[in-house]
Structures are given as C-alpha cells and as structure tokens.
Design brief:
CATH superfamily of the largest domain: ATPase, nucleotide binding domain
Strand order of the largest sheet: 9-8-7-10-11
Largest sheet: 5 strands, mixed
Structural class: alpha/beta
Shape: globular
CATH class of the largest domain: Alpha Beta
CATH architecture of the largest domain: 2-Layer Sandwich
Helix content: 25-40%
C-alpha cells in the first residue's frame, strides 16, 4: 500500500516467444486519506459494507488517475488495454486451502477515465478452481527466467513485498511458487508502532542496522506452523500483522526498538533464504520494495552465501516496475485467450483464463485466441514497431 505502480509495456507474440518492451514506469501515491483507510480496513479491523463500498470506489478512482497519468507521461497518450491487480485487503486461507480473496479498486472507474477496456479481478478464477490465486508472479518468472535455469541449479525469483514469495524455475519442470512468509509486513507494522504511525522512520533500514537480533524473539517467530507447511500455500497481512507481533513479544524481556527491527529483518531473510536453499537455488533474483532496504538485502545475501543474490534491475527489469509489468502480462494473456495461472504454483486444478473484462468506450472486439504454447519471455530495450505481430 506504499503506492500504485504503473508500467507501460509493448507486448507481442513471436511464435513461442513473448516479446516485452518496457516503455517506462512510475509510482503514483494514494491520497493520504485513502491510504490510511485501506490500512485501517485490514483484518481484524471491522469494516462496514458502506466503508467497503467507499474504499472500492476510492481505490478505483486512484487507479484511474494513475492509469491516465501513465498513459499521458509514458505512452504518448495512447494505449490499447489496461490491466489491474487491485489492492488486496483480505485473503482467507484455512487448513491450507484458500477460501476467498478480495482486491479493491472498481475497474469501471479506470475504463471511464481512459476509455480503454480493463482486465481486473485477476486472482478470483484461480481460487474458484481450487488454487490460492497467488503468487501469480510465477506467470512472469517462469517465462522470463526460462533460459537462466537448469534442473540441478534452478533460478529462484524472490518478491520482497509486504508478503514475500518465491518462484522456482528449473527449466523443464513446471514452476513451483509460494508465499514464504512476511517480507515487509511485520517491519512496516513495527515501524508504525514505534513511530506512532510514520512509515518513513526507518528509511533504508538504518535503525535495523543499529540493532542486535534477539534470538528469543526470532525463535518464537520461526516456530510459526506456516513455515513448515508444504506448498502450494499463501498467506497475507491478516496473519502477519501488528497483533501477531504483539503476541510474539508477550512474556519476553523488554526489546529495544532497534533490536525489534533487526530481528524482523533477520526473520524475513531467514525464511526467504531457507526456502531458496531448500530448492537448491543456483541463483536468486530479488525484486519488490524490500530490495530498497540495504539492511534486509545484506542479511539475505549473508544467509544465501555462496548462492549469488542479484536484483531484477540487474537483468533489465526494474524491481519497482515488475509487479505492474506482471499485471500487463496477465491482462495481455487474458485478452488473447491464453490461460495465465501455473497450476503447479497456485494449486489450481488446471490452467484457467483469468480476470473479468470491463469494456471501454468502444464495443469489445477480442482477437482470435492464440493457440501456440508460449515458452519464453524476452525483454527488449526499445519499443516494438506497430504492426509487427500480435500486440
């Protein structure tokens, strides 16, 4: 909920390869009142149907403004399709099964503001098919990293968002992906607690770097049964939240603020690294907001050693843009009739077309479905020429 990531990308089918050229990306901030209301709506907080309606509308309006800005500033005023992952406010999992997921951001506001068709609600169909609706990042990672992995030394993509997730790409096999646990969620909760609501108190992880890991708290946190569950699995901020943190420190000797943050950094680094090493990672590529935290990245590199740690930026895909590029990819695949959920990652009973399409100003005219399997994604340095294949 730090902001709305926007990316403009040209996509084109080229046989079994999907070519993607990133034109640009930006982050648009939520209006302060909307951001605070979204944070305040997270479980276990009570949220009335009226408040939910207002948030669904306000988030949709914020997405619409961000889309208009992206089209104007990054696309020369022209685009063909918008895709939105929405803002997750609830993700219900019980006994390893996802019972439902809710993303806010009414897509009709985006369609009205841009005049373009909008593909949204991209997780629900996978959940209806028995999956977790996450991590959909595996759709991008399996194509993007296909040429960088082998069966004995997989490439592992790590997303350090509020919740951390990994995608294991081993070449011939279908990808394995799952949420490893908290990325920045508990760190954000702790910073808000000790700063009375500010999230900029620990910029660049400086406070955490001054602290010492409290082994008693780390052991308590690592005892969470989630880490021992077998994938596919997913979790969310309804589990890893401030109340969870307060229960964890209950009964322990007083903990200094810097030590609390240092311990939570170590928790994220330990759980992510353990998951990567369990799959014999040959290389690890990180993205998400957590890569901007040098203290977290240093802890993760230490835990992974000697496996090399790099970022998606190093491979040509800006980490700040990756999730927005994922949204564009998912929308593009749905538009062309291509299932976009890897069942081996989400746990769904089979491949499914994802999302719902809200028409723009013109009637919907979808292209004929693309029938050839897509096995690879290639990032291009320049914009694709118009008319050079399916775009």
């Amino acid at each position: 909920m730090d902001g709305i990531d926007v990316a403009v990308a040209d996509l084109r089918m080229a046989g079994a390869e999907l070519e993607v050229a990133l034109r640009g990306h930006l982050t648009a901030g939520y209006p302060d009142r909307v951001r605070e209301a979204l944070i305040g709506s997270l479980p276990p907080a009570a949220c009335t149907t009226v408040e939910l309606c207002e948030l669904h509308t306000a988030a949709g309006q914020a997405f619409a403004a961000a889309a208009v800005r992206g089209i104007d500033e990054l696309a020369g005023g022209h685009a063909d399709l918008v895709a939105s992952l929405g803002q997750t406010v609830a993700h219900r999992v019980s006994d390893g099964r996802c019972l439902g997921t809710l993303q806010l951001g009414q897509p009709a506001w985006i369609a009205e503001a841009t005049g373009l068709p909008v593909v949204a609600d991209l997780r629900a169909r996978d959940v209806a098919a028995g999956g977790h609706g996450a991590p959909l990042a595996a759709t991008l990672d399996r194509l993007w990293l296909a040429g960088m992995a082998s069966a004995d030394r997989p490439a592992v993509a790590v997303n350090l968002g509020g919740i951390a997730n990994i995608t294991v790409v081993s070449g011939a096999d279908e990808p394995l992906a799952y949420d490893t646990g908290p990325g920045n969620a508990l760190l954000d909760a702790a910073v808000r607690l000790i700063s009375h609501g500010r999230l900029d108190l620990d910029t660049d992880g400086r406070l955490a770097a001054r602290g010492t890991v409290r082994r008693d708290l780390l052991d308590t946190l690592l005892a969470d049964p989630y880490y021992a569950m077998r994938p596919p699995k997913s979790t969310g901020k309804e589990h890893f939240r401030l109340g969870y943190l307060r229960r964890a420190v209950r009964g322990l000797p007083p903990i200094e603020d810097t030590d609390l943050l240092a311990t939570l950094v170590e928790l994220t680094a330990a759980t992510v690294a353990d998951a990567c090493l369990a799959h014999r990672a040959g290389r690890v590529i990180a993205s998400g907001g957590g890569v901007r935290n040098p203290t977290l990245m240093a802890a993760l590199a230490r835990r992974l050693d000697p496996v090399p740690l790099s970022t998606s930026d190093d491979l040509g895909l800006p980490s700040d843009a990756k999730e927005a590029v994922l949204a564009a990819l998912l929308g593009f695949l749905t538009w062309h009739g291509v299932p976009a959920n890897p069942p081996s990652a989400t746990g769904a009973s089979g491949p499914r077309l994802l999302g719902s399409i809200t028409p723009g100003r013109a009637p919907l005219r979808l292209p004929a479905p693309w029938r050839r399997p897509i096995s690879r994604l290639r990032l291009l340095d320049a914009a694709l020429p118009v008319g050079g294949g399916r775009q």
